[in-house]
Amino acid sequence: MRVVVTGAGGFVGSAVSAALQASGHDVVGLARDPARLVAGVRPVVGSVLDAEVVAAALDGADAVCHLAARVRVRESREDPLGYWRTNLDGTRTVLAAAGPDVRVVLVSTCAVHAPADVPIGEDAPLAPSNPYAASKLAADLLARDVALAGGPGVVCLRVFNVAGAAAGRGDDDRSRVVPALLAAVAGGRFTVNGDGSAVRDLVHVADLADGVVGALGVAEPGTWRAFTVGSGRGTSVAELIDVVGRVTGRSVPVLHGEAVDEPSRLVADPSRARRELGWAPTRSAPERIVADAWAARPLP
Description:
By secondary structure, the chain is of the alpha/beta class.
């Protein structure tokens, strides 16, 4: 298939582009900076908000993997209009350009759900608590309505904490926990909010990319389906600090700050993705995630 990847120059976009190519697909990458695209991806330069650019990218496409988004929770509270514009209007632009025979995979977030002490699956209550999550949920629901009105088949992947490295590229966003820890090891400090007991579900970016490729196969015209994508394994911040120290062979300089208002536990129930997509998070052990991210870091 000819598959368009929006946000193809990013951390996840690079991994998805590489996985699609490995599966034999012809990949078109929509990105602002074509220099960041994986080798072999045909570039289309521009913004997901530009209807003409998006239409040109999707011309003749069989599928689109929509990854372009703004994703920082704290930043979204400072710029809610910007987040809603990119995340909702960008999705609307993609859906408007996709014909009814085009398969659409949206990469969304677990943050659309309410926090819970039990593993979170697709049927968990929806309760976004910040503009980022709210704008992503709105995009999910718009896609559902368009699909069920006879539009393109849509699969929505609600993803937990993506980390690791793929296609030779790690994550350079230090607002996320693994890049922040590795930056501290390389020279700096990592601030722990509270006692480090907050638990998160880490999923390797290459495992997520496999899930995106698998989702293309079930995006049937006129249907909308959601899947939870996570490892199903919880790792506390304190445990992750220990993993980083063991994998890198270096101590992690830590500062302890006040506890912040955040969920104490966010862990996935990925059983539907395992059952219906044949997907498995085979690389998502914390040790593998940290080792791959550490190996892909830019050398000083």
